[in-house]
Amino acid sequence: MAGNQGADDLLNEIEALGAKLTLARAAIGSRIIGQDRVVDLSLAAMLAGGHALLMGLPGLGKTRLVETLATVMGLTGNRIQFTPDLMPSDILGSEVLETAADGSRAFRYIEGPIFSQLLMADEINRASPRTQSALLQAMQEREVTVAGQTRKLPAPFHVLATQNPIEQEGTYPLPEAQLDRFLVKIDVEYPDRETERAIVLATTGSVDAEARAIFDAETLIAAQSVVRRMPVGDTVVDLILDLVRACRPDNPDAPEAVKAHVAWGPGPRAAQALMLLVRAQALLGGRLAPDVSDVVRLARPVLEHRMALSFAARAEGVLLEEVIDEVAARVTQSERAA
After folding, report:
1. How many CB atoms lie within 10 A of CB 308?
2. Whole-structure pTM over 0.85, yes or no?
3. Which residues of 138-147 are buried (b: 16+ CB within 10 A; e: fewer)?
4. Which fold has domain 231-338?
5. Where are the domains of the chain?
6. The predicted structure's pLDDT at residue 133
7. Burial of 49 (0-12, 13-18, 19+ CB in 10 A)
8. What does the alpha-carbon distance between residue 25 and residue 46 come to, in Å, rounded to a whole number?
9. Which helix (H) or strand (E) holds 144?
10. pLDDT score for 4
11. What sign results for the dihedral spanned by CA atoms 56, 58, 63, 64?
């Protein structure tokens, strides 16, 4: 009886949260036109309690999206414009020596912009690797260590970083360890003609659409708890494991495309990310549990930044997304055959 009551309570929570998410998506969509997949992946990352990396050329609305998300989700936000001369202390904060009225001197810690619930790391790949690495501890452990003292960050804590492609002049590739801490990589692409027309008309008039708060910090934390309690069937769990493991070139059972073209593959954190994101994706779709299609849909955003092609594969023009699609199709087919 208690089990049935718990299931009913979870069902009611999922339905209530689904209605709230519908309002949030509408509020975001009033300012972010024609980027439904980008919006859904960003929301899924936040519902899963993780961080997102928005990849795209300048002028595609990445910064506008992050600013809108902060408002709609009701979070305190800070923005850091990453530049080549940015220092770690500009992110984490630092201690300063102050002199009191009586002449005594003492150090006082001044918090950096990282002490926020939603940190926007704008053009993160324009800062040096040393500065980029200042985010590592914060993204994984939700705390920072400065001058030997560990300080907790606000809850919830999310990093939404924007990145221009590394082919752009004056950028640094993100370290692999930091890339792995992003739950998902979201490609922001050029809009089609009709969408671009709608964007031009909506953003060049005298009035710009304003976002309004739908969530707050407490509601988002509660939503993240619901996501973690959503049931996941054995078929979906097995597919996640098979997919992640098949993308590792040292796995004897990996497809030939992986063994021939992939230099290194995803670790266990990729499977954890998929488990959380398929639940969030199901919730955004108004469903009570994820299915196989969620795993396939999220394969690229979760795996692409956790893998690398070999030098020979890059020279041959092999595309990593095509390798991932091939592996996902093969694993899904094997799962269905079993």
Report:
1. 17
2. yes
3. bbeeeebebe
4. Helicase, Ruva Protein; domain 3 (1.10.8)
5. 231-338
6. 83
7. buried
8. 13
9. strand 143-146
10. 64
11. negative
